[in-house]
C-alpha cells in the first residue's frame, strides 16, 4: 500500500519486537490458566507510548495517524488478543473526551488516559439492551451537583481494573425519547475486584475465551457521580457522541481480528511444515496447501480493508461505511481462518498443548462485540441505500 511510509514500518517493527519478546512467551500459559494480563506488561506498554499514539502532542500523545494505531493493534493482537484490546478502552474514552469533552474534562482526564496511568472501561451494554443502544434503561437523575445512578450494565470488559467507567445513561425522564434522552458520563472508581457495594457492585462473567481481560455485570444503586463528569456538559447528546467514535472502535477491532488471524495462520503454516504423515510433511498435501492459500488470501483482504478505512480516517473523510465493512469482513474472516488452523492441527488443535484453540476461541468473539455482524450489515445496507 503506497501510503505506508518508512515511519509506519518502523512502528510495526518496534511493536513486533515488543510482542515477540514480551507477549508471546507468556500468552499460552496465561491463557490456559484464564489469568489476567500482568499489570507489569500494561505498564511497559504505557512506557512505550502505545496508549497515546493517536492523541495530539498537547495532551502527551505522539500525534500519530490512524494507520499507525492500526499497525500497533494488529501486532499486539497477533501476540495475544487481550493485549491488543487493552488499547481499545482508552481509545474509546479518550476520543470521546477529545472530540466532545469540556476543556476542564480534557485537562483532568486526557493526560492520564494518554499516558496509560488511567485505564478505562466502556459500560454501554445492558441486560436487555445490547445492539438496541437507544433502549438503554440505566437512569442518571440529577440531584444538585451530582447524578444519582440506578440500574445495571453488563459485558463491561476490564471494569475491575479501570479507573474510569464510561457509562451511557438515560438522563431524560421520558424513555419514549429513546436515543434522544441518553448521555455519556464518566464514573470514577478505584481499581480492584471488589468495586464499591452496594452502590456499585460487579460480578465476573465466565466466558469460553477472550481470556486476559475479564467482563463484568455491574449494578448501580444510588451511586453518585459529579455533574462535571457529563461529557460535553450538555445532557442527552450521548448517543450522537457515541456513534461518532465508533469509526475509531471498528477500525481498531478489525485490526485486532487481522492480528489474531495472522497468528493462527503463522502457527498453522509452521505446524504444516513440521508435521509428518505418510512419509512427508502435511504441507505437501494439496488439501493443506489450498487451505493455507485461502487463509492467507482472506487475511490480506481484511488487512487491506482495515488499512483503507484507517487511511480515510486520516484524510478527515467520513468512514463509517468503510470501518463497518472492515469490521464485518474481518469478523467473518478470522472465524474461518482460526477454524481452518484448528483443522490443520488435527487432534492437537483441540488440545491445550498447542495455541490453535486460543486463536479459535478468541476468533469467535469478533462477530459479537463492538457491534454484531448482523448490526454491521444493517449499518452498511442503510448507507448503501441512503
Keywords:
single chain, 386 residues, alpha+beta, four-stranded antiparallel sheet, three-stranded mixed sheet, 10 helices, 51% helix, 15% strand, globular
Which structural class matches the secondary elements?
A: alpha+beta
N- and C-termini, Cα separation = 30 Å
Total number of helices = 10
Topology order in helix (H) and strand (E) letters: HHHHHEEEEEEEHEEHHHH
Shape field:
globular
What is the C-alpha radius of gyration, as a whole number of Å? 21 Å
What characterizes the major β-sheet?
4 strands, antiparallel
> In percent terms, what proportion of residues is strand?
5-15%
Strand arrangement across the biggest beta sheet: 2-3-7-6
Q: What is the average per-residue confidence, as pLDDT, rounded to a whole number?
A: 94
The low-confidence runs, each spanning 5 or more residues with pLDDT under 50, are none
Helical content class: 40-55%
- Strand tally, please? 9
Report on the structure:
- It is built from 10 helices and 9 strands.
- It has helices spanning 6-32, 39-47, 66-79, 81-100, 103-115, 238-274, 286-314, 320-345, 356-364, 373-385; strands spanning 120-123, 139-143, 146-157, 164-170, 182-188, 200-205, 215-226, 276-277, 280-281.
- The strands form 3 sheets. A 4-stranded antiparallel sheet has the order 2-3-7-6, with no helix packed on it. Strands 1-4-5 form a 3-stranded mixed sheet. It has a two-stranded antiparallel sheet with strand order 8-9.
- Strand 8 and strand 9 form a beta hairpin.
- It is globular.
- The mean pLDDT is 94.
